[in-house]
Structures are given as structure tokens and as C-alpha cells.
């Protein structure tokens, strides 16, 4: 069986993370796939040899301890900015020494998102995974209102990070203050971010969509505690510097319109759908919440997709999980190698198809030869066993996997 085992698999690439999985879990799965592949055999062996040589100079490290350490080493991998579990789209990934190039993606580059939100409800997390914080009127809002309101946020703005985020104050996560119903010891520091553009799409204000209205599963006492939580409810609203300068406006706006006694929200809430390009550090959940408040209502995010980060763009130069999991590593290996060396200029889908067509006759010939002689396992059988082994390993190591508080939201 011929293998593709290149050297120096170091660099940057981008992959499309699906919704419903944490960024950390997704990267761990990717790391395991790479570590078990032939593609990274030589790269990993050189890495292990280097680590072994370094550890062997330390008298504190005995041979048995070194062997165990080296045996457990995996392909070095890192990210250039996480996505919440609800979100899908681009994750920029650094491999090997490429992890040193990730700082640009973490704090300096622009990102483009497509997002959908429902009007009339705000939540503790700013999205559909949180508890209901308030319910507000929506019948006064038109699509034109949404378009005019969104214009107020284009430019340089100050943004209040969501309290249900990874941020801490005095060593305590912000969401714990909210959960306990106690005020923050000091105001949350705002972030200076930039909304480069914001385009409201045609189906905005439509109720013909797949998203159901969020319902609470809290008891009345818990719900009442949230409804009167000053930490969550009273936060400043900021419009862009450019809008304020052009219109001589302040941050003041009318408060959200409260439902009358006995009044209910419609079963299908109107949807906001827009595409926005923003600077690093911008919270889309916060932007959506602010737009809802500026409309004298409220809003929560139901869908988010990162479609571009710097020069990496969905449909152009971004891998999918299936590209690795469903293809022979002799197909995806050369394409990944090209991207690590040449960067975002490589058309991933086009190169994968070309490599697949080139390798197909060779792989088929190998399968027929092995089947005829019955001497070895085919490449497909080897990969099947790898997947089975990986599944068992995840079961055994499940307790050691990285744990993330479901209410501790990540930066997006």
C-alpha cells in the first residue's frame, strides 16, 4: 500500500465548523484525525524525535517517563478565534509551527457573519440557548425601521460584552453574578469595535421561517428573578461615532415597549436577517440585542455563520470536515499540504476534485490487487479500523475531555 507522508506539515488553513459542537471539541476531533493519518506520520515522528532529544538531556526524566510522554504526543494544533456552539463557519487553524502565526487572526483581522435573530424576546445569553429575560412588543416595527436602525451601528462603536461570556470580574465569571442575581462590583468595560458594513436582507420581518418562539422552562420565582435583574437589564446603548456626528444624536432612545397585561407575542416572531463585516472582538449577540433595543423592543440570535475571516472565505478556500473524514488521506493530504505552503490562494474544492480524479485509478487498482491476493487490508479497511479505534479512545478518555460550562459563552 502506497502512502502520502510529506514532511514539514506546518502552516495555516481554514475549516467550516458545523453548528452544535464547541470549537474545542471540533479541534480535538480534527487533531485526532490528523494524528492517526499517514499524512502526518513523518511530521509527527520528527516532532517526537525532537522532544525526546530535549527531554533526554534532563536527568529528572527517566526513559519510561519519556517514552510515555512521547507516545501521547499529538499533532500540534491551534485556532485563530473560536465560535460559539450555536455558530457555524470559518475556524482558522494553525498546525505545527503555524500556530505562531495565529495572533493576526485572534486580534487584528476583519470577519464577516450572516446571522438571523427573532424580535420580541431578550435572553440571558443573547441567543436561543439562554433563559428569557424580557418580552416586548413587535407590532410597531417595519422592515424600513430595521434598515434605518441598523444604519446607526455602522462605523466605530462602543460595545458592551454579553454578561454570559468568558469574561471575569474580580476573578469571578460575569455570568455567576447574573445567575445569583447580585449587582456587578463595577461597570463592565466597553470595547471599541468597528462595524464595517451591515446589509439587511430581503426576508427581514418575515414570519415564514423555521425558528420556533423561545419558551421558558423556569419556575415563576426563577423567571421573576431574571425579569428584575438590574445587572442584566440596565446596560447602555451606543450608536456609532459616525452616526452621532452626522445626526447630532446621543445614545438616548425610548425604552423597549412592554406587553400589556394579558397580551401575548405571536406564535411566529418576525425575523431579522443580515450580513455584517466587523472588526475582531465584536460580539454579534450584543449587536443583535442592541438593534432590538434601538427598535424599542428586544431580539435574540437564532443562527450565526462566519462566512469570511481575513482572506479565508466559505466556498473558496475553506475545508469541510467531510473533506477529511470521508476521503482517503492520499486525496486530502496533498491539498492540505498545498494550502499550508501557499495559503489562501488555493481553491480547496477544485484541488480536492482534481486530486480525487488523479488518485481514484491508483486507489482502485490497489484495492483490486489486495482483494485478489488477500495479503493486506485495503486502505478503506485501515481507515475503518482507525475510526473504530478513535471512537473507543473517545469513550475511554471522555472524562478527560475539555469541559466547558454551557452558559460560558465564547468570543465570536
Automatic annotation (TrEMBL):
InterPro entries: PsdUridine_synth_cat_dom_sf, PsdUridine_synth_N, tRNA_psdUridine_synth_TruB
GO terms, molecular function: RNA binding; tRNA pseudouridine(55) synthase activity
Known catalytic reactions: a uridine in mRNA = a pseudouridine in mRNA
Biased composition (Basic and acidic residues): 363-376, 387-412
Biological processes annotated in GO: mRNA pseudouridine synthesis; tRNA modification
The keyword tRNA processing appears for this protein: yes
Gene3D superfamilies: Pseudouridine synthase (3.30.2350.10)
Entry keyword set: Isomerase, tRNA processing
Gene Ontology CC annotation, any one: nucleus
Pfam families documented for this protein: TruB_N (PF01509)
Domain (Pseudouridine synthase II N-terminal) ranges: 69-202
Coiled coil (UniProt feature): none
Sequence segments annotated as region (Disordered): 363-412
Enzyme Commission number(s) of this protein: 5.4.99.25
Domain of life: Eukaryota
Family membership: Belongs to the pseudouridine synthase TruB family.
PANTHER family: PSEUDOURIDYLATE SYNTHASE TRUB1, TRNA-PSEUDOURIDINE SYNTHASE
Protein name: tRNA pseudouridine(55) synthase
Species assigned in the record: Meyerozyma guilliermondii (strain ATCC 6260 / CBS 566 / DSM 6381 / JCM 1539 / NBRC 10279 / NRRL Y-324)
Taxonomic lineage of the native organism: Eukaryota, Fungi, Dikarya, Ascomycota, Saccharomycotina
